[in-house]
Amino acid sequence: MVYTRKVRRGSKTYLYKYKSQRVNGKVKSIYIGKELQKSVSKKIKVKKHKTTNRLRLGIKKDVPEYLMHFNSLMNEINNSLSSQDVDSAIKNYKELLNTYHRLIRHLDNEDKLQIYNKVKQTYDSITFAAESLGFTIKK
Questions:
Q1: Can you state the angle between helices 59-82 and 109-132, rounded to 10 degrees?
Q2: In terms of CB atoms within 10 Å, which end of the chain has fewer, N or C?
Q3: DSSP SS3 for 67
Q4: What DSSP state is assigned to residue 126?
């Protein structure tokens, strides 16, 4: 059986071919010669994304801002629904969804579930108000 061994000396890597052969009941590794070097040094390409760098630096700093914005949007939606202004409630709901998607990246599963239930409850109240006012809702 022929195989290749990598030998590192300093920062360089050398490839050598060996073969296994049974001699007097024992398996010996016999040197064949140098193997043609392919590209031994592997270069790793690092892709830089603008959002990942920003998120890595400010993960915990953004959460309070997102939560405050989320709560203010919830209040605006509730005020719009109490005054029967479904159009502005829907507009604010779309912005609420965007904030929700930014926010859940930074939360654990228990908090995600609480926020999801709030969003679902808001959606249900908007659809109920829209249906009671005679709007047709596409699902």
A1: 20
A2: C
A3: helix
A4: H
pTM above 0.70, yes or no: no
Between the CA atoms of 64, 70, 50 and 113, what dihedral angle is there, to the nearest 10 degrees? 90
Helix (H) or strand (E) holding 8: strand 2-9
Asked if 110 and 136 count as a contact pair (C-beta separation under 8 A), the reply is no
Total residues found in the chain within this entry: 139
Tell me: the pLDDT tens digits for 1-44? 888 888 888 888 888 888 888 889 998 888 888 876 555 555 55
Greatest CA separation for the chain: 97
Query: Helix, strand, coil: what percent of the chain each, to 5?
Result: 55, 20, 25
Residue written as token pair 């300093």: 10
* Amino acid occupying residue 45: K
CB atoms within 10 A of CB 6: 10
C-alpha 65/C-alpha 116 separation (Å) is: 18
The identity of residue 42, as a single letter, is K
